[in-house]
Design a protein that fits this description.
By secondary structure, the chain is α/β, with parallel strands linked by helices. It has one domain: TIM Barrel (Alpha-Beta Barrel), CATH 3.20.20. It is about 40% helix and about 15% strand.
């Protein structure tokens, strides 16, 4: 008789299905590289507004070890103003048209607008990253259900314009968990396969310093929701609050890596970062220690 292979429950890993024949396997924490084709993002605004520079950076991040490239055409920094669909598409589509011919890893589109997501999917994007968790555009959930693509649902208080105006929680982690429970139920009701849903607690999106720290420290609580978890801590302002030398976003590398490692040790599956090479290196060490 063939030898029976016993697999421990914790070794059974989730798989996120993408386009036919493609998938993301969560056997290790994945790195999502940030590509903002915007003039006003909090950290890298204006650096990749030209198509050539944006394409070059995306391919560079792939070489550095990124598993996903997340492209955004509208800044969601605190106090930012929304842009039109037309302007967002003018920033995104030229870059995606080129990347779909050269990039081997999946593209995620960072948008809460259904029309922008639809056009991006037609140009090769395979994941929708919606900071509103399907709340800002009523057509986003039907689109995700129709296209059968993974969707990232993020927690945020209010909108980017007002989210940092006196945010308050009684129990930050518990309230976010309740929000996720409601949003997952809504998504499933709208026809989105539960296996396609990824959750992001939204570090810095309507959160105080204490809230951001509490989320990272108690990240394991979100594992109870049985969905893949993403977190974006890269260069966020809470890191600068903890370190006087980190007043500028590009001086927050050490804090960004420390926060990413803490999140991974507490159960994060996907880390969204600006500094891909350094984060990949850090996570390889963590993975080796865990194994």
């Amino acid at each position: 008789m063939p030898k029976q292979i016993l697999v421990k429950a914790e070794e059974i890993k989730q798989v996120i299905s993408l386009a036919p024949g493609r998938q993301l396997t969560l056997t290790r924490p994945l790195v999502m590289g940030i590509l903002n084709v915007t003039p006003d993002s909090f950290s890298d605004g204006g650096k990749y507004t030209s198509t050539d520079k944006a394409v070059k950076r995306a391919l560079e991040m792939e070489t550095e070890g990124a598993d996903i490239i997340d492209i955004g055409g509208e800044s969601s920094r605190p106090g930012s103003e929304p842009v039109s669909e037309k302007q967002e598409l003018e920033r995104l589509i030229p870059v995606m048209k080129i990347l779909k011919k050269h990039l081997k890893i999946p593209i995620s589109v960072d948008t809460y607008k259904a029309n922008v997501a639809k056009a991006s999917l037609e140009e090769g994007a395979e994941i929708i990253n919606d900071i509103s968790a399907l709340r800002f555009d009523q057509q986003m959930a039907p689109l995700a259900a129709e296209k059968k693509v993974p969707v990232i649902l993020m927690h945020m208080l209010g909108t980017p314009r007002d989210m940092q105006k006196n945010p308050s929680y009684r129990d930050c982690v518990a309230e976010i968990s309740l929000f996720f429970t409601e949003r997952v139920a809504f998504a499933v009701k709208m026809g989105i396969d539960k296996s396609k849903i990824i959750l992001d607690p939204g570090i810095g999106f309507g959160k105080r310093l204490v809230d951001n720290i509490e989320i990272i420290a108690n990240f394991k609580e979100f594992k109870k929701l049985s969905r893949p978890l993403m977190v974006g801590v890269s260069r966020k302002s809470f890191i600068g609050m903890l370190n006087p030398d980190g007043s500028f976003p590009d001086r927050r590398l050490g804090g960004s890596i420390a926060a990413a490692v803490a999140a991974v040790l507490n159960g994060a599956d996907i880390i969204r970062v600006h500094d891909v090479a350094e984060t990949v290196e850090a996570l390889k060490v963590i993975q080796a220690v865990k194994e």
